[in-house]
Fold this sequence. Notes:
The chain is an alpha/beta fold. It is built from 19 helices and 31 strands.
Amino acid sequence: MKTIQNTEISWQDNTPYSKQFNDFYFNSDGGIEETLHVFVKPSNVLEHYNQKNKNFLCINETGFGTGLNFYCTLQALVAACNLHSSKPLYFFSSELFPLTASDFQKSAKNFPQFSHITEQILAQYPPAIKGYHRIILNSASVYLTLMFDDSVNAYQQCDHKADIWYLDGFSPAKNTAMWQPDLFYQVARLSQLDQTSLATFTSAGSVRRALQEKGFSITKLSGFGKKREMVTALYSKKIIIEEQPKPWFNTPVNIIAIKNVAIIGAGLAGCTTAEALARRGIKVTIFDSSDTICSLASGNLQGALYAKLSSKPTTSGELHLTGLEYSLRLLSLYHCFDKQTAEQCGVLQLATSHKEEIQQQDLVANDLYSSEVLKWVDAKTASKLIGHDTPFSGLFFPRAGWVMPKLFCDKLINHQNIKLELSTSVTNLTQLENNYWTLTSNQGDRVFDAVVIANAHSAKQFSQCSQASIKAIRGQVTHCKKATTNNLKTVVCGAGYISPPINGKYCFGASFNLHNAALTLTYSDQKNNIQNLQKILPSFSDELTFPDHLTGKAAHRCSSPDYMPQVGPVPIYDKFISQYQKLNKDKNWRFENTAAPNYNGLFINIGHGSKGLITCPLSAEHLASMMLNHPSPLPKNLSNAIHPARFVIKQLIKRVI
Ligand code: SAM
C-alpha cells in the first residue's frame, strides 16, 4: 500500500468536489469571501505580522486542499504589509489526500487573480510522497510547507509554535477521523499562551468542547452565508502536559541574535548553508583553505541526483526522498536545469545481482511509491530509456538526474550577503565570554555571532569536534572522452554510476575504499570503474576508448557510522556524558526537560557521504531555520536522525562510555 495517495476529484462545472467526503473544496460563488470571513479577517493576520518583536509569522492549517486559504492570506499580507525575506511567512498545511498536479492546475484556473502564486507552486508541486515538502515562494518571503500526512501525524512531528491556526478539513460530521482528541492536543502543544489565535468554519459542539478542554477560550461569530455560526479562539490556559522523552534533541535557544555567520568549508554543505542563511538576510562569510570552492568531495564533474530506496519505509529513505525533492526545487529556483549545471534526465538503477533483483521486486510489490517517483522496467525498456543496451532490468526514477556540484554552488553563493574567503585555513575556534566566536586563521582573528563547521572529516581538527563520529571513505571517478555515437540519455547506476556526457567527457565511478587514505589516482580503482561500466553497458563500453593513463578525481567522502548526515548544534561531549549519565543504567530514564549542553552559537553540517546532492540542500534549510529559531522544514523524526548528539547518546545507552 502506498504511504500516501492522491485524491480523486469529481468536477462539478469547474469546482472540485471530493467523492470521498461528499463535499466541495470551496464555495463556487463566494469562496474567496468565505475564506476572508472565516479565516483571514478574524485571525488578525496583519496585526500578527506587524508585531515588532517577531521576525517571522507562522500559520498552521489542517487540510491544504486547493490552497485557497493560503492564497487569500498571502494576498492580504502582500496588500497591506511589507512582506519580505528577512521577515517571512511560514505557512504549514497538512494534507492526507493531496490533489494531483493536474487537478491542482485545473482548480487554480478558478482563481486567475492568484496566478502569480499558483504558478510558482505548480512549478514546484510535489508528487504524492509522505512527509514534509517545503516550497520557497515570492522571492523567499514565503515558505509553504506541505505536510502530506494525516493532520495528527504531521503536527506530532512539529516543534514550532504557531501564531495562528486555521482548522479546515471537511466538517466533523463528514470527516470524524480528522477531528479527534489527539488533533486538539497537538494544536494546544504548538500554541503560545495568550498569543496564538485560531479560526475554524465549524461551530460543532464537539469541536468547541475539545478546544476548551485544551485551554482555548472560544468566541462564536456569525458564519458566512447560510452558515449560522463559526468559531475563533485564543490559547489562554496551559492545561496539557507536554512530554519530551528525548531532551538532548531540544532545539537550542541562541543567547545572541544571529546576524553575522562564519561557515568553514566551501563544499556543498557550506554553500547550501550560506544560501539558506543569506536568503533570510544574514551576512555570511565562507572560509576555505583551498583556492576554489568544491575542491574536495563536492568537486566531482557530475554527481547522480537520486535516492536509493529500500523495500520498506525507513528513516533514511524518508530523508533521501524528501531531500531529493527539495534539491529539485532549489535547483529549479536557481535555474540550474540548463544541461550544464544539471539535467532532470531520469536515473536508471539497474539490478546487477540476483539479490538486488529480489530487493527491487519487493520494493515494487510493496507499492510504496507512486509511478511519478519510480517504476520498474525490464531490460528492453531500460535499454530504450538509456539509449544503449543493458542486460539488466531496474528501477527508473523519472524525476532524478545529475548535477555538476561546483556550478550549482557558484549559483547558490552568488548573493550580496555572502562573502567568500579562499586560501584561508581556519585553525582555531574560541568562544568569548560574551558568547561571540573568534575564528583564527592564517589571515588573523575575526569575530562572528555564530560559526558553522562544514568541512567534512576535517571538522575533527577543532577541539570542539574532536569526538565527532566520522570516517573518511575514499572514492575515485574516472573520466573518458565521449564517442561520436549516441550519447547516454539517462544516468545509469549499477555498481557505480555514469551520467550523460558533459563538456565532451563521460564521468563514471565511483570506487569505495575504506583502507586507502591517499588521494592520488590509482590504476586498480580506474580498472574497477571501467569493469563495472562494461558490466552494465557492454555495447556502449565497446564504443568508448578508455584512457590508458590515469584520469579522473579521487576524494574522501565524509560518512557517519549510520550513513546519515550530522546537522545541528555541536554537543559539549563531557557535559553530555555527565548530564545524561543515567542512560548507562536505564535507557528509558526520564530527564527533566532542560536545555541540552551544546556550544551556544556553534553548529555543524557534515557526514553527507556520497549523498550530498540530496541531503545538503534540505539539511542547510533545516540548519538555517534552527539557527534563527525559525520553523524547521524537517519533521522531528528526521531532525533527530541527523542530530549530532545522537552518537554520544547511543554510546551512553550501550555503556561504551
Ligand atoms: N483549505 C482548503 C482550501 O483552501 O482549498 C480546503 C480544505 S478541504 C475543505 C479539506 C481538506 O482536508 C481536503 O483537501 C482533505 O483531503 C483534507 N483532509 C481530510 N482529512 C484529513 C486528515 N485527516 N489530515 C489531513 N488532511 C485531511
